[in-house]
Amino acid sequence: MNSLAQSIANSMDCTNHAIIPFLPYILQDFWEIGASPDVIKNLIEKHTQVPRQLRALDLGCGKGAVTITLASELHCYCLGIDAIEEFINEAKGKAEALHLDSLCSFEVNDIRQRITELPRYDVIILGAIGPVFGNYYETLTTLATSLNDTGIIIIDDGYIDDSSSFEHPLMLKKGDLFQQIHDAGMQLIDEVIMSDMEETEEVYGEEFHNIERRCHELGTKHPEKAYLFEEYIHKQQEEYEILKHKVVCATLVIQSRITM
Known about the structure:
The structure is a single chain. By secondary structure, the protein is of the alpha/beta class. It has helices spanning about 5-10, 25, 35-45, 65-75, 85-95, 110-115, 135-145, 175-185, 195-220, 225-245; strands spanning about 55-60, 75-80, 105-110, 120-125, 145-160, 185-195, 250-255.
C-alpha cells in the first residue's frame, strides 16, 4: 500500500509530496474539487427509492461539496472523510452555517484504514480520487464490505478510450476498467459522460487561472520554494489538457450483480 502522502498526491495530481501542505492555500478558490455534486445527486435520486432514508459515505470528500449537497437537497445522512484537515474544517464550517450539521458528519482520517471500521452504507462515493485501495478491482472488493446489499457505488474518474494510443500511469482503458468492475462481482448500471466541451473549456480555464494565481502568490511568499509551485502549475496544466483531449471524464454508478 502506498503511503498516505503518496495516496493524497495521486488523488490530487501531484508529483511532489512537498506541495501537499500548500494545497489548502492553492485550492482556496474551490469548493467543488473534482466531482460534480449535482450529477451525483441526480444519479442517487434516479437509482434509489427513498433518498431521505439513505446513509451515504463520501470518501476523499475534500471540502464537503458533495456531502453537503446531498444532505441539503436529499435530506439523507452523510459522512465525509478526508486526510487534509483544512478541507474538513471548511466542510464542518459550511455544514454548520447551513444548519446541516445534524445530517452531515466530517472527519480527518486515512480512508484506507477507516473503511475497515465503518458500518454499511447505501451509497459510497469516490469523487475524483482514483482507485485508492489499489486498482479498481481491489477498490471495489474493499468497498463491497461496507455496502448494503442493494447499495450503489458512485465513482467519478476518467478512463482512456479503447481505440486511443494514449497511456497514463493512473488511468485505465475503458475495457480494462469495465473488466475490473465485472471481476469484482459488480456491474455498471449507469454512466454520465462530461460532453459539453464549451462549458468544460470555460470551467477548466477558470480553475487553472485560480491555481496559477495562488501558486504565484506562494512563490512570492516562499521564494526558496518557487520551483515547487512552478512544477505544480506545469503538472496541472498537463492534467487539464489530458482531461480535455485524451480521456473520457465520467461518473459511474456501480452495483453488485447479486442484489437482494
